[in-house]
Amino acid sequence: MKTTIRRAASSAIPRALRERRLLQGQQGFERRFLPWAFLAPLLAVIVGVVGYPVARTIWLSFFDGEYLQSGPFVGLQNYRDIFADPYYTGALVRTTLFAAAVVVTTILLSLAIALVLDAAPRAARVLSVIVLLPWAMPRVASGIVWKWMFDDQYGVVNWLLVNWFGLDSFNGYSWFSTGTPAMVAITVAVVWHSVPFVAVSLFAGLRGTHGEVVEAARVDGASAWQILRRIRLPMIRPLLVVMTTISTIWAYQSFDHFLVMTTPPGGPDHSTEVLSLLTWLEAFAQLDQGSAAAMAVVLFLMLAAVSVLYVRLNREDVR
Amino acid sequence: MRARNLWRGRVAVAIGLAGALALAACGGASDSGANSSGEIKGTIDFWMGDPIGDAQQPIMQKLADDYAAAHPGTKVNLRFLGKDAHQTYLTSIAGGSVPCVALIGNTWTPEFAALNALEVYANDPKTLQGTYVPGMIESTIFKGKSYAVPYDTGVRALIYRKDMLEAIGKTAAPATWQELREDALAIQAKNQGVNGFGIIGGAHWYYLPLIWNWGGEIAKQSGDKWVSEAGSTQSVQAFQFYSDLLTKDRLSPAGASAWTAADVDKSMGLGQTAMMVGGSWDLRTILKQSPDLEGKLGTAVLPKGPGGNNDTFAGGSNLAVFRECNNKAVANDFVKFMMTKENLVPVTSNLGLLPATNDALAQEKATGSFSAPLFKAYAEQADHTRSIPPVASWGKVEGANSIVNAMQSIMSGKKTADVAMKELADQVNQAIG
Amino acid sequence: MTSLLRRGALFLLVAVIVVSSLFPFFWMLVTSVKPDSELFTRTPRFIVTSPTVERYTHLLDGNIPTQFRNSLIVAVATTVLTGLIALLAGYALARYRLRTRHILTVVILVTQLLPQTILVIPLFTLFRNAGLLNTFQGLTLSHLALTVGLCTFMLRSFVVEIPFELEEAALVDGASRLRAVWSIVFPLAWPGLAASSVYAFITSWNELMFSATYMQRPAIETLPVALQQYFSSYYTDWGGVMAASVIFTIPVVIFFLIVQKRLMQGMASGAMKG
């Protein structure tokens, strides 16, 4: 009975209204219960393995903690301790510089690659598969390969720098015995791994900008560069912001490459120690879960602040 | 329509998988080795740390198989931990997922005992005397009780290229560190592309003993506390000397500040390094890689420092049973099995270690592998050893890599030896005080 | 002439991109089959004269097959569960005007920017108390925390794309909402599922920090941990380490190549919306 009435009505009633009626569902039960049933597994995961741990970490950061056991309440002492620790503040600065280097290089390289792909439409399909491939190499494996390529004696990087670019000072140059070159080598490896996803996303975004506006500008005699700067880049600006945010978060969380590529982890002499590595070592090598929790909370707050900042920027630009 | 059916099939598979996972969760995946009846039956886990050369895994595997064959219904699962072994143990102790038996570094034994992770082996350590090499018993003791069985000792000595030394007109290995430096420079001048001395910046075992050689101490006991001596003049000079070998004399490539023994083994094997400090296990690794070096290599006791001694670490391992092991009957029986002369000697002789029981050691020295000319130096060096401070929290010093970091900061020129060693002393005091 | 120049420059750029993307793959493979005598040379050799597969046979005799299987179990379980959870949630977010939708969106977003280090300690104690340490279930659960957020977003945007009329037609025909979702929406969300599956699979297959902390028994060790430990002890055996890396890399690359078409579609439609 019901269905025939509905069918009769469906042609007369405007779509929006129909949709709304349908969304409200045939029964109150479905409307009230079904969406939550659909969301329940997600919420269970979010509460169980995300929400609880986060709350617990914040809680633990106010307690002393030795050997992964909770000690007495110490208030903000753990926070004071870590900020008084030169290794922690050093890691904070280092991670920030590293993240800035990674993000800037990643975005610029990705944009360049996206533009090349955009300029070679016939090859773009195959090319984007090739470009995306490094993303699929496990980080541990890519760390190992890059470490081998940066080897001082038998590495292909030094050989290339000496024989192709004539930089003789790189003969036997040791990338991993001091901090700065080690960070450079790791940055290269991390960028190689993070460019693909960003580049292909930007390429997809750029492709969507071909259209009447661009065509009209071309007819009006605008150069390709002008079109890119004035029309196409502004069109993908929101995407650029999202990609910058994502790569910032990734860069701040880098862990695998550092663990694999440095001896001892974070060495030599703490000179490649980044936040995630330091936090993990604090928790599972020093077994001091109080300080480690405090470090984790600070990193989380920083990432949240960065994200909010990007979102704000994006909004203002649009306005 | 076809596509939809296909999809439906896949969803069914997916749900099946998820269900299987859930079922497995209910079943529990924990070990089924639980056994409290005291019967020799069931499974135990046996872990060991950083592999000592290529020979270790097959030998240990054979012993585990032999044990299971001799005791039907038992099984020994082996796990070889990498360089992060110390951290892995700590994490598993904290997580309550320890192995039954483990071959642990002797410097870790008091630490793990302090964490209440190990089963007491002997309430009165004096009862162990006579059976075990005296120096080795000490490392098993925490608060008056013994928590592990001494298993082996490894000492390091000087490994060198006889042919290269002869080519500069020397017939004997250098007797002092200064002489070693001069010889290495001479060899390096004569052989292009050869490193005079293999520097190992990434592992503190290779330069911490220099503090003793320079006449200093790593730590001194005052009352019931230990105070670090890393800031003493002798300590600073010793570390400065080792660092200078790399930065001033360039006896190894700059990257050697992060090298570990494996790097130098490789380099010696490739004929690119003339001398190194290494265990007999290193010697075996080199010879296995390049058998043609056999006639060209020589060994000698370590050179002396200005302090007049050539003491080095009594490194080694202890066999420990963990308190939370759920099959102690098999665990204890397996330890007994491992400690018999018949089972101990094949391991130590193949790995190039000295056994920690007196009877096995006597056999090794008389007729065993340490009677061979190339290995005699190790037996000799074994009489010139010392231990690190027997404090539970020494593990923290190693865990934080404080000593390696100090050396590397001197090598990179980031800190002067004075500053770096004062900082090291502070860190050690904080950890062990 | 300028057009020829332009094409030349473009070709050169494409060549640079292709080489720098693929060289590490090539180098890994070449290193893994070179005998040591060709490996440790000051001038790198790009062509192998006498390749050896000895390292592979040696590795396959060891623990690698078990570790491979373990990784596969965890990655497949994570992928399947993520797909189910995210599709259901994505559907709910796309089709129902829930009053809490904005809060939900923010919450899901926040899960995506959480550092792993904030989860690693409490999950350790949680799993310890629940007996989930050293189990595939525990590790899979921890991996879900890393995947469900982004995948829900991906799938939500796909469901939004699916014309409502299709579903409506089914509903009008008297099918229940569940039937409609089952038979209309799921099949059409394929490209989205493919994209989110690759993401989930790769995330889980690569994950190191949780795996290294929660899996402490040889029988259940996963590849990233095994490889990291193997590397830390045998790093001077570059050939062996590279062979292990190749074995570790192959499944992801294959899986990636199988679904890459859908993945590109997914990323493109994701990019449109920014």
From TrEMBL, chain C:
It comes from the Bacteria. PROSITE patterns: ABC_TM1. GO terms for cellular component: plasma membrane. It holds the Pfam family BPD_transp_1. Its main location: membrane. Gene3D superfamilies: MetI-like (1.10.3720.10). CDD domains: TM_PBP2 (cd06261). Keywords: Cell membrane, Membrane, Transmembrane, Transmembrane helix, Transport. GO terms for biological process: transmembrane transport. The chain crosses the membrane at residues 9-30, 72-94, 106-127, 139-159, 180-202, 238-259. Residues 68-259 form the ABC transmembrane type-1 domain. InterPro entries: BP-dep_ABC_trans_perm, MetI-like, MetI-like_sf. It is found in: Cell membrane. It is a multi-pass membrane protein. Belongs to the binding-protein-dependent transport system permease family. This is Sugar ABC transporter permease. It comes from Dactylosporangium siamense.
